[in-house]
Amino acid sequence: MSNDGKVRVRGLSIFRPIIYGNTATLLTTEDRKGGNIPPDHTHKWTVAVRSAASAPDSDIVGGADDLSYFIKRVTFKLHDTYTNATRNIDKPPFEVSETGWGEFEIQIRILFITEAGEKPMVLYHHLKLHPWTVTGEPEIPPPEVALKMGPVHSWQYDEVVFNDPFQNFLNILTAHPPTPLPTVKKRPVPFHLANPGSLEASRGGIPEFTRLMEKEEAARLEDAKKKVAAEQERWRNILIEKEKELEQLRRRVNNS
Amino acid sequence: MAASIADVRSALSIPGHVTPNRLQQVKKQPSQSVKKPEGISRELYSLIGPSAPSLAAQLAKPRLKQKPNLGGGGKVKWEWRNFKNGARSDSLELGHWVKASVDPDSEYPFAKYNVQPTNYIWSPDEYARHLEDPEWTQEETEYLFNLVQEYDMRWFVIFDRYEYPRGEKEAGRAIEDLKERYFSVCRKLIRNRTWADENLKTHLQNLMQYDKDREQMRKRYLTSLDNRTPDQLQEEEALFIEIKRLEQNERKFKREREELLRIIAGIEAGLPDIADEDASVSLSLDPKRRKKGMDFEIPATPILTAPVMKKPQSYKNAAHDAQHCIIRNEPSGTTPATKAAHTPSYMRSYKLPVPKAAIAPRVTQILAELGIQHNRLVMPTKDNCALLESLLETTTALVETRKVVDKADYEIKVLKSQLEVRENEDEGDGTASVGEIDDSDVFETQKNGRGESIGSTRSTRNRKLCRRSMSTSSVDTSVTLPVRAVKRQKRA
């Protein structure tokens, strides 16, 4: 490695949008025929780390770009009851497919390429098998209903931020610009608990992350801020009233 | 001239030049026969002769352009009508002339110009935190704000009516003092309050700018400008002329020198530089030149952002940055470029702010009511994270305010029960003078319009007796008061 590659570019941060999460479907009788699936397993699922944008006509959420240009390895730590609970994935796609019957927390450890000079990053994802509900309370519908509702998607968007990257790492990153998120909605919205209102919009097919989601969330935040500010104004007026009253009472107490 | 030459010729009896004279005479005769035009007196015409026509045309009555018809034809009907000014709080009715075509039910068109300036009020808590000033007491500040409100920010009127009793040795307030206090209080209130719209906040803050020193200096200048004696005026004039003269000399000298150089040394190129250099040094009133002179100094300051310049040119593009998800921060000159100072890579959502532990449950609850989760976002982009952060700040402020309200509530409760206990004691002793209680009743009614709360129950002896027996429950009645106050607030 040449020496000038080890120079940090100051005052600059560069990020890469990624998504992590899982997709789960109910096992059908045909699925069971082929392999040696334990009889108590009800779902097959895939947990993955992918780029945020979806490739056109793909049947998965996200994954338009190959992330191996900055990710060296992704380690998924499954529930201890699985054989080889720690799965190292060194090649894209960074994902693990399994069958199971229960939801649990998966630890995802992302190791960056050596040029990055960064420590590994650890994320947590709650494996989601059962359909989303408005309340967020886990509710397990009977298999027939669940089957009708189709695969369950649970994905979190996030951005990996690199501060003051090394020059050669920056070069690598800029050589692979991420596919921008689409600005129009063509597919369902990925459901997220922070936005329960999107439940209806998340139905009917493979969801896709879009710019619109960011804008929609910004609007919700702005709206909430306005309401809070109005409330604050109201309470301050109440406070002023109260303090006036208090002042009068004090005067009366002192006078009497 | 011609005539005199002719005279000389005739005197010297030089022949051959008589013909012009005769020609003139021949010409004159037909001109006299031309008829005198109208609008000019005969005597005048005989004086000015045939050159008159152009004049006569001007003397004739001027033909004016036709008056434009603004009314659209026909007469406009006006009516005397009574009207009410919507901006008035009293129901005074005045009359005015209006076109009959105007709808009689329409609102008085000038009512909308009666704009009241926003009245800024503060809680004592806010005053203690932000508005303390050794020069001003809270009472005086309130007095000032009331005056400002009363006289619609007409500062000279406010200054005139300002009669706050102050200590003997303290000097009266100047109009600048009043203005400075008012604007600084407004600025502080605006700065420390939460605003839904940041733009509005900065706009208001800019409106409230006031620089007392500058204002005083401006007035001093104006006064001194006004107080100049005629002698001084003359001197100024003379000096101005002198400057102009000097400048002119300078220019002339420069031009001459330039010419001289061109002639002697044959310097063509490089000469303007010499002239320019001199220009910036020479006495000059031209502001443009002065600015130019300042420009020369700027590059002298060391460039601190040198590392930015080192970066390849290709990065200098916003579109490029957006495409590659690059965010540029101001490189901080203070942090040393050591390994320890480096911020490791992180997930954007992991840097979301956390509310203070003590109030976290209430913040979470308020946000949950608004459908926002304080610890997670669907799309934790940079903008959204910043938005969530400011939302959390606002919510924290709200929770703090409500805490203070609760505290005030509690104190009111305590004071009320104290008062009641004391009154009951007084009544038990039989020494309480009825007049005194009545006075306090009136006081309460006036101030709050809430006479029914405590006062009315006290009016008769019977009730007094009842009251004593339920003194323990009296605390409850006082608790209902704040609720009522809240309701009134809502309606307002």
Automatic annotation (TrEMBL), chain A:
Family: Belongs to the YAF9 family.
Subcellular location: Nucleus; Cytoplasm
UniProt function note: Component of the SWR1 complex which mediates the ATP-dependent exchange of histone H2A for an H2A variant leading to transcriptional regulation of selected genes by chromatin remodeling. Component of the NuA4 histone acetyltransferase complex which is involved in transcriptional activation of selected genes principally by acetylation of nucleosomal histones H4 and H2A. The NuA4 complex is also involved in DNA repair. Yaf9 may also be required for viability in conditions in which the structural integrity of the spindle is compromised.
Name the record gives this protein: Protein AF-9 homolog
Cellular component annotations (GO), alphabetically ordered: cytoplasm; Swr1 complex
Gene coding for it: YAF9
GO biological processes: chromatin organization; DNA repair; regulation of DNA-templated transcription
Keyword Lyase: no
Gene3D superfamilies reported in the protein's UniProt record: YEATS domain (2.60.40.1970)
CDD domains (alphabetical): YEATS_Yaf9_like
Segments forming a coiled coil: 214-252
Organism: Marasmius oreades
Domain remarks in the Swiss-Prot or TrEMBL record: The coiled-coil domain is required for assembly into the NuA4 complex.
Primary subcellular site in the record, as a coarse category: nucleus
Assembly behavior: Component of the SWR1 chromatin-remodeling complex and of the NuA4 histone acetyltransferase complex.
InterPro entries tied to this protein: YEAST_sf, YEATS, YEATS_dom
Domain YEATS: 8-176
Keyword flag Transcription regulation: yes
Keywords from the UniProt entry: Activator, Chromatin regulator, Coiled coil, Cytoplasm, DNA damage, DNA repair, Nucleus, Transcription, Transcription regulation
From TrEMBL, chain B:
Organism: Marasmius oreades
Family: Belongs to the SWC4 family.
Bias kind Low complexity: ranges: 469-483
Taxonomic classification: Eukaryota, Fungi, Dikarya, Basidiomycota, Agaricomycotina
Function of the protein: Component of the SWR1 complex which mediates the ATP-dependent exchange of histone H2A for the H2A variant HZT1 leading to transcriptional regulation of selected genes by chromatin remodeling. Component of the NuA4 histone acetyltransferase complex which is involved in transcriptional activation of selected genes principally by acetylation of nucleosomal histone H4 and H2A. The NuA4 complex is also involved in DNA repair.
Coiled coil: 200-263
Main location: nucleus
GO cellular component: NuA4 histone acetyltransferase complex; Swr1 complex
Residue span(s) of domain Myb-like: 128-186
Region (Disordered): 421-492
Designated name of the protein: SWR1-complex protein 4
MF (Gene Ontology): transcription corepressor activity
